[in-house]
Amino acid sequence: MEEVREAGQSSDHPSMAKLKPVRAPFLGVEELSKWPLYRATITEFVATLLFLYVTVATVVGYSHQSDPNAFPDSQCGGVGVEGIAWAFGGMIFILVYCTAGISGGHINPAVTFGLLVGRKVPLIRAIFYMVDQMLGAICGVGLVKGFQKSLFNRYGGGANFVHEGYSRGTALGAEIVGTFVLVYTVFSATDEKRRARDSHVPILAPLPIGFSVFVVHLATIPITGTGINPARSFGAAVIYNKDKPWDDQWIFWVGPFIGAAIAAIYHEYVLRASALKALGSFKWSSFKTDS
């Protein structure tokens, strides 16, 4: 989701095929003295706060509406799993659309980590983003608890944990694959060559990213409640603060970070063959020097 700057070529430019991927500096120390970094981190904080408030409130509300003890005669079971999935995917679509031009619209430490591995963001910016994403998540879930404390505590606070009938290995695998789908979609939707060739790609980018979150939730809500976002899992665990979410918390960090790294490597160094191109360029330069 990180905003990528093209080299100025239009889709009919003859050298478009030679467009090189933009590589961020490793550290990015020079950004520390510039306002855009702090504006972007504030944006990530607010976006993650809004994301967690709406989605966790949806989870708690559905749990209440579908509780037969609370509504014994109700014919409606609430929004259902599909509604929860739509809440997560829809909020990502909205927030990426709103924030992509400012911060890149990460709203997820796993996405930030994947873009760091793919050299789309420098390390210092990535650290700032992750810290603000965590703080935003805690505040967003805190708002849910503040507005409906009894329901929040009664229905688990939207916290992620390994559900009954599934092993931790299964949950870890679900988090790895689910995050791979998300981060691979992010890289594909923001690919430099596609953006240069097709002018509609930057406009539509939030749609496939949000939709990937939706479909992953459909597949993994029964297993873990769906993490694929360490900030989402961490914020709920901090505010709910019960043993089970903390015991399983490592799954919602290790899985997403592994999935994000694999997606970044697959897209940047396999599909785009950045490593092979760099190696080939090095060999050709060495050959010319030797000759």
Automatic annotation (TrEMBL):
- Asked if the record carries the keyword Repeat, the reply is yes
Give the source species: Rhynchospora pubera
Where does the record place it? Endomembrane system
Name this polypeptide is given: Plasma membrane intrinsic protein
Q: Which domain of life is it from?
A: Eukaryota
Tell me the membrane topology, using the record's own terms.
Answer: Multi-pass membrane protein
Return the similarity comment: Belongs to the MIP/aquaporin (TC 1.A.8) family. PIP (TC 1.A.8.11) subfamily.
Q: Where are the transmembrane segments?
A: 42-63, 83-102, 123-144, 171-189, 201-223, 250-271
One GO term describing the cellular component:
membrane
Q: Does the keyword Thylakoid apply?
A: no
**Chief site of localization:** membrane
Q: Tell me the keywords, alphabetical order.
A: Membrane, Repeat, Transmembrane, Transmembrane helix, Transport
Question: Molecular function (GO) terms listed?
Answer: channel activity
Pfam families registered for this protein in UniProt = MIP
